[in-house]
Write a structure and sequence with these properties.
This is Phosphoglycerol transferase MdoB. InterPro entries: Alkaline_phosphatase_core_sf (IPR017850). The chain has 526 residues and is of the alpha/beta class. It has two domains: 2-193, no CATH class; 205-520, Alkaline Phosphatase, subunit A (3-Layer(aba) Sandwich). The protein contains 16 helices and eleven strands. It has helices spanning 2-22, 40-51, 54-85, 98-109, 111-145, 147-164, 175-202, 237-252, 271-280, 287-294, 301-307, 354-366, 422-447, 464-467, 484-489, 513-520; strands at 38-39, 172-173, 220-226, 256-263, 311-316, 333-336, 373-379, 452-458, 474-481, 496-497, 507-509. The strands form two sheets. Strands 3, 4, 5, 6, 7, 8, 9, 10 and 11 form a nine-stranded mixed beta sheet that branches. A two-stranded parallel sheet has the order 1-2. The radius of gyration is 27 Å and the shape is elongated.
């Protein structure tokens, strides 16, 4: 019985090490065939432990096991980041992203839940490292006790790998070594990123310039970010139909529109980085860059409008607690979730339905006697988990939002999509995007006039569960105006006509838009 137990422990230890070494870092690539490979790193590890003197073997096995455990934790982080953000975990730049995750749990489920979540994560990491250390130590002891057999087994495995190697038919795996090399390269890039970003930020052709945006004098300019509205959405029948219908409605109301694509610095999440990129003209693809940006004096679009005599406001329903970074954008007024006057229920992540957000902006700013106003409005109804989505309501019946109390609501976290049927998730996503687009289009119809210039765009693509593997990071952007003079200014952009960009529409980096916009609507000498 004892012998059987020891052999069982040895087999389980071997399976654990094998799994860690050859498991893909992309959940989409998990398959039975992916695990039918010989890990070269494992063969090298066995050989090292067998050949080491007895007094060094145990410390080396423990050290190697701890390293393997930490590698397993990083691989889990890689899988999670790939599912949500389309990329691996960055060992240098991504640690600050864990803080917003904890804050989200704290705000949504309470302090006890956030403390419990942190405790469980720490326990899980410690458990993985412990199991890895014990497993490697166990395998090392067994191999050393049968040294000749172990050496012959390693040699035979190498011969088999070389003999059966056929292009396109993987027999062996060096995934662990490749992953370590990739992470090492990213660490080097991450360590240099602060200096690289400082150099990029130091160049600003518009800093200190006067007369900016003079071609838009008297216009109300609204930049609206439609959460998770990516290029992939345009291929969904419901959304394509909504855009086609929207084109007809806007034309009937006397509006013109042009559309293109912007490449977002993020995908699946990280809306604040995309919005900061768009407004600042700098590429913000990690939290370190975001923190350095908001600590700088960079000229943002809101600040440029404010310094050119516009009233600059930020309508940010996703902000539910203190937001000191908001000072960086130089808004005259920030409307956070609690400032919108909403008395209805919460729909998933969304604190406020998009239609109500736009109505609140209209009521608080444009409905009053006012000079020109510029607004940046990130809308959140199309944020994961995309269910439920509120019904569209007659504008005159919105009131304080109590009308939404009759609709199905929930407080599900964004990650709940991973426990649902992918087809249902995609359908819910399409429905939520259609709702958000309807909110924007109907707002223009209801409250638009000769002085409204509306720019609406996606902040990033949705999760890969919606887009599928290999999707780009491109998002649609559209400018809508009734004044022909405004649309004449943007002819040089060569954007497609209408609110749905075609497959060959221009594509530029999201960080390029600020300069393009300021150059177009400012005098040539600025």
């Amino acid at each position: 019985m004892r012998m059987l137990l020891r052999r069982t422990v040895t087999v389980l230890a071997g399976l654990f090490v094998l799994f860690v070494l050859i498991a893909p870092s992309d959940l989409e690539k998990f398959s039975f065939e992916a695990f039918l490979r010989v890990p070269l790193e494992g063969l090298a590890g066995v050989l090292v432990l067998v050949l080491l003197p007895d007094r060094f073997r145990k410390p080396a096995a423990v050290a190697g096991g701890v390293a393997l455990g930490l590698f397993a934790v990083v691989k889990i982080m890689d899988i999670g980041f790939d599912m949500v953000l389309y990329r691996p975990f960055d060992l240098v730049l991504d640690w600050p992203l864990l803080v917003p995750a904890i804050d989200f749990v704290d705000v949504t489920f309470g302090r006890f839940a956030s403390v419990l979540a942190v405790g469980l994560v720490v326990a899980l990491v410690a458990g993985i490292v412990f199991v890895a250390a014990v497993s490697v130590q166990r395998l090392g002891s067994v191999a050393a006790g049968r040294r000749p057999v172990a050496i012959r087994a390693v040699a035979a495995a190498v011969v088999v790998c070389l003999s059966l190697a056929v292009p396109g038919v993987p027999v062996y795996s060096d995934a662990a070594a490749t992953s370590l090399v990739d992470h090492a390269r990213r660490v080097q890039v991450g360590l240099n990123d602060r200096e690289v970003f400082a150099a990029e930020a130091s160049a600003d052709a518009f800093r200190g310039q006067s007369g900016l945006l003079s071609s838009l004098q008297g216009k109300d300019v609204v930049f609206t970010f439609v959460e998770s509205y990516g290029k992939s959405a345009l291929d969904m029948p419901d959304i394509a139909a909504k855009l086609a219908q929207g084109d007809d409605r806007l034309k009937a109301a006397g509006y013109s529109s042009k559309s293109a694509y912007l490449t977002s610095p993020t995908a699946g999440g990280g809306s604040w980085m995309a919005q900061a990129t768009f407004l600042s003209g700098l590429w913000i693809d990690n939290q370190q860059r975001y923190r350095n940006l908001v600590a700088s004096d960079r000229l943002t679009l809101p600040r440029a409008f404010r310094e050119s005599s516009w009233r600059s406001v930020g309508v940010v329903p996703g902000i539910t607690q203190a937001w000191p970074e908001g000072d960086f954008f130089h808004y005259d007024k920030i409307y956070a979730a609690q400032d919108l006057g909403y008395a209805g229920p919460r729909f998933g992540y969304a604190t406020t339905p998009d239609q109500f957000t736009l109505e609140s902006f209209q009521r608080n700013e444009r409905a009053k006697a006012h000079g020109p106003v510029m607004a940046a409005i990130p809308m959140v109804s199309s944020h994961a988990p995309w269910s439920p989505t509120p019904d569209f309501v007659d504008w005159d019946k919105l009131g304080d939002g109590s009308i939404y109390s009759t609709m199905p609501a929930s407080n599900d976290p964004p990650e709940s999509i991973f426990g649902r049927d992918p087809a249902a998730v995609r359908a819910d996503y399409a429905h939520s995007i259609s709702y958000s687009l309807e909110s924007v289009l109907s707002y223009i119809e209801k409250y638009g006039d000769e002085n409204l210039v509306m720019v609406f765009l996606g902040d990033h693509q949705p999760a890969q569960m919606v887009t599928g593997e290999g999707a780009s990071r491109d998002v649609p952007i559209t400018i809508v105006a009734k004044d022909p003079a405004v649309m004449a200014e943007v002819e040089a952009w060569k954007w497609d006509d209408g609110i749905k960009p075609g497959g060959s529409a221009p594509v530029s980096r999201m960080s390029d838009f600020r300069d393009q916009f300021l150059s177009t609507f400012s005098p040539p000498n600025t």
